[in-house]
Amino acid sequence: MAQDNSGGEPGVFHSQSLDMSVTAGFGKLTVSNWTGCWVPFRITLVNQGPPISGRLMVYSESPRTPTSQGRQFIKEVTLPTGSRQLHEIAAYLNSGESPIVRLMQGQDTVAELTIAVDRSYGMSDQLEIAVLDSDSTALNVINSAEIVRTPNREPFTMVNRASTGAGQQTGGQAAGPAGSQGNPGPGTGAGAPPTPPNQPGRQRPGAPAYQPRMSAHPVTISADDLPREFVSFDPVDVVVLGDAPLSQLTEEQARALKLWIASGGLLVVTGAVDGAGLRSTGLDAMLPVEAEGSAASEPSSQLTDLYGGFGGNAPLPLLLAQLRQGARVLVGTDSKPIVAERFYGSGLVRFVAFNPKLSVYRAWVGAKDFWTDVLMPAADTKTRHSNWMGGRGPSSGIQSFLYRLARIAPPSTRYFLLFLALYVLLVGPLNYLVLRWMRKTDLAWLTIPAVVILFTLVSVSIAQISRGGDSIESEASIVEVFQRDNLARSTGGLMIMPSSKGTQEMSVAGPSCYVNDLSNSRGPGSLFTGDIETERNAKGLLLRCPMTTWTSAEFQVRAVEESASPVITVTEHPGGGPAAPGANSAAASTIDIQNLTGAPIARVVYLSSDGISDVIDLGAREEKRVSLNSLAPYTTAFTTWYSSQLQAGSEEEGLFSSMAGILDREIGGDAAFTQGFFQSTQLALAGRKLQRPLLIGFIDQSRSRMEFHGSSKQHSKSLYVIQL
Q1: Which is nearest to 481 in space by CA: 693, 677, 319?
Q2: N or C: which end of the chain has fewer CB within 10 A?
Q3: How confident is the model at residue 468 (pLDDT cuts 50, 70, 90)?
Q4: Is 581 exposed, middle or buried (0-12, 13-18, 19+ CB in 10 A)?
């Protein structure tokens, strides 16, 4: 049994035969009971006693309510005598209840630790920045600095520096338009007003004037502290790569970092980065630049015009680089980028050419303003991984759609009226007539309850038979496919309703799909009869959920897939090829769209800066030719226009209406999406800002490949956003 360790060092368990130490989160463990998040638990075990074969477990609990739920996140372990092992478990937390780490052997608890957690309410006002560096003060210059958008300027453009003593700046080179590969836009340079860049982080048209203020909170971590599962980055908003030795990263850590970026994270790579380590781990492939080596260089006039001088003209140490295809410069030039960026999946990788912990940059008057601009995209997308499934019960958010998709509805009132009519007209009179014929009416006090019970049992049995013997599973999700990066990201909701009482098992194949319950959103009919067990093994994720018959439970599903197969191919025919029948005669060109999947794609629309197609349906493997129409007539926002193209009352219309409000902050990978592309900007304007062609449609197929163990009726509907 576990030894009492209440008076020992926090996070450390010690007995004569076993030592266990636990760290969780990044520097501290803070959990919001509003959004919830996955948290990494790093557990070191040293066994000096007999061999141990058992389960390592993180136990957490949802917020204390009448339906609070325990969760167990389990990993099978084997500890030989004299072994020292490091294990990491990702656990989903959404309350201030202290999680417990246990080592179990059979039914016995070998070691147990309670981990302290800080509880927060609502959305945190801190921008959490994990800095991989050997110096704990590497980014102290921005500690507690406010990351807030200045309403009268764009990031990386002119700044009024009068308040800092640098004087009013009238020069500065703005980043060029999207796809310019960093070439300056027309009219830029000293004495000319800057051209606002089409870039992530700018204020969205139609957005409220109030912008939330966030305080930068950098925490220095070692390479060993990088998680091995991408969801474990949830507590972090930004990762900054300093001079920490990256060659120490395991393959799992490098992959988790890449998947986190692909799912919407912001990675900032500084001039201090370990280039050899980047290459050995394969992380260099995401960079917007090709590094060439360090050198001393004259201060960039663009940099000093924007943020103020360095107190002299002495050469500054910089990491020299060349811009890569598909990236663009924000400060500097293609041959000498100071700040450059590139989208990777739904996330963003930014390159900063200098080492921020060098004294010349620490003392720089413009350091805080500069880093505010660099970090702004993370402030804009901080809520990306929040629970957008809806409020409480099946009547709100996407949960109502999950019930509708599963074809679950309360019994018709006609059923109750028929039941009542049969009882009044048949059961009562028939019982009386039979007793009168038998001349035993005095037994009515006994026969009436018996007949009522029998009638009820028969009615319930008929209702159960009519419902069927299969469990019900429905899944609705947003799927982003980045065909240029061979990546796919999906986020959505899952509802299950079992046909029998007991522990229901669900499994997901693959190493990058995660499922957590939505205990805060469960309605009165939802019920788990015991702790939910989550176990990740070599095959994938396994959930065990004790439930009763015909009760429902909702889950959030998140997945990122590498080497994703392409969904669509598009062949352009510039200059107006043969138009499809019934197409707009004013079309500028035509395109061939081919569905590469084995499932039909409904209500497909193709958009690019050149135009927009009519909405079509594509069968499995089908190819169609469509014309591109001018964007000029489309004066409403995309969601308004697209909703009008969906049949009222259809499943496509139901899914889109439940998701339309979160698309602007959930979809990434293109600068246009940060500017209110879906909901607040006229399509005629928003479409012209697209950097890459876009295709949107619906597929009745689960991307997560969730398998419910046992017989089940499965219903799936996904909104696909495909970037070509």
Answers
A1: 693
A2: N
A3: low
A4: exposed
Instruction: Identify which of 308, 333, 309, 305 has the alpha carbon closest to the alpha carbon of residue 320.
Output: 333
Rounded Cα–Cα distance for residues 2 and 113 (Å): 9
Torsion of CA 103, 105, 110, 116, to 10 degrees: 20
Q: In Å, how far from its chain's centre is CA 63?
A: 22
Q: Which two tokens stand for residue 568?
A: 């669509």
Tell which residue, 371, 457, 399, has the closest CA to residue 148.
371
Distance in angstroms (rounded) separating the CA atoms of residues 249 and 678: 39
310 burial level (CB within 10 Å; 0-12, 13-18, 19+): middle
Coil, strand, or helix at residue 5?
Answer: coil
- 474 in Cβ contact with 447 (< 8 Å): no
What is the helix (H) or strand (E) element at residue 323, kind and residue range? strand 316-323
Q: Which two tokens stand for residue 524?
A: 């009165």
What are the start-end ranges of the E strands in 409-552? 471-482, 487-497, 502-509, 513-517, 532-536, 540-547
The separation between the first and the last C-alpha atoms of the chain, rounded to the nearest angstrom, is: 58
CA 383 to chain centre: 9
Instruction: At 342, list the tokens.
Output: 């590139």
The alpha carbon of 479 is separated from its chain's Cα centroid by a whole number of angstroms, namely 11
Report the pLDDT averaged over residues 256-275. Answer: 94
Asked if residue 662 lies in contact with residue 655, where contact means CB atoms within 8 angstroms, the answer is no
Rounded to 5°, the CA angle 117-558-644 comes to 125
Closest of 212, 269, 214 to residue 244, by C-alpha = 269
pLDDT at 190 over 60: no
Confidence of residue 465 (pLDDT cuts 50, 70, 90): low
The structure tokens 């986020």 sit at 491
Tokens in use for 607?
A: 């958009």
Residue for token pair 């630049």: 289
Tokens 């970092």 correspond to what residue?
257
CB under 8 Å to 380, separation ≥6 — which residues? 200, 201, 665, 674
423 burial via Cβ count (<10 Å: 0-12, 13-18, 19+): middle
In angstroms, the CA 601 to CA 571 distance is 18
C-beta of residue 238 within 8 angstroms of C-beta of residue 380: no
Q: What pLDDT was estimated at residue 177?
A: 34
- One-letter amino acid at 382 equals K
Is-contact 498 576, C-beta < 8 A? Answer: no
User: Residue 372's pLDDT is what?
Assistant: 92
- pLDDT class of 606 with cuts at 50, 70, 90: very high
